[in-house]
Predict the 3D structure of the following.
Amino acid sequence: MKVIEGGVCAAKGFKASGIYCGIKKPALNDPNKSHKNDICLLKSDTVCTTAAVYTQNKVKGAPITITKANLEKSGNKAIAVIANSKNANTCNADGIEKAEKMCELVANELNVPKEQIVVASTGVIGLVLPIEPIEKAVPMLAEKLDYKGNQEAATAIMTTDTVMKEYAVEFEIDGKVCHLGGMAKGSGMIHPNMATTLNFITTDCSISYECLQKALSDVVKVTYNCLSVDGDTSTNDMVSLMANGMAENKTIDSFAEEYETFKAALYEVMANLTRMLAKDGEGASKLLECICTGCPTQDDAITIAKSVIGSALFKCAIFGEDANWGRVLCAIGYADAEFDITKVDVDLKSEFGTIAVCKNGAGVEFSEEKAAKILSSDEIQVLVNLNQGNENATAWGCDLTYDYVKINGDYRS
């Protein structure tokens, strides 16, 4: 497997575009009145087998409702994605109408069935989505579609993100070279299950819907669903995975060796996008990664790792570079998992070394100076070993800083 450039355009037959259309005007306090891309289009040269997972929030954005309905009508086939930022099109009386209209605009412009369009929105909840800028944008997006348009598209789905997020790999199936790449957005309002993220993944591998959906659902469980920035699960979260088969490999239709190769490629892309999302958490200064090993079951490992990552107190300690390991034990203790706390070890690790802070559920003597040095890094690992099995899991998050409050204190303005 090889890491390559191209994001959602890395796979054969996918092109993308992104522009600024004016869904939300630049902030009054923005001295540059910057016009960042706020809408994008992704299209395959051929119809794709398409799998998806969605937010588990009971309040769902209108685009989620329409995308689910479209994939049901089309038999899980899609050829294009339209996505906007700045406005979530959620909790609006005309939300369904606007989401349907976005699909209709793209379908008419590309001369494809509207049921083959995936639609997604992200941004402020409860503001009416203006459709006029989108009506003007769709022809321009179609005209600008390019096999190297991945970065324009990745920029268009950013909200409070400070960097665009994309990743792609190359791998081999049945003697054919295949590609899989994706783009993601997300910075705040991120918490399992399905964090506040929009994620679009493409591949030219030929694979059945059943295998594609299972691979996506399984990998989401150990990547995006192990991501937490602030404890809030959003209304518009979505991952779509489109496979157009243009690599011309023999179709993967069973859970054999070729399926495992594909799943490994999908994990590589989604795990790295998850890591990028965690590192770019709103106001974050440090990436926080909890690796939980020695567990009786994988579900226990996931639950414990997520509990540590989600602890607001521990996130604050990491921001303050304070080795307050008791907060780790506290978070482990309220995790919904069965284990013997008297066997649990905890280490803190970064590029500056590793230090043991807890052994057999109790504190051990350690150098506060060495611990402070380790925690001064911008990437921190918390190593939790239950010593009670062979299963493991990783969860990703970030520290909790003053800037998080500042960003969310005036998010609408």
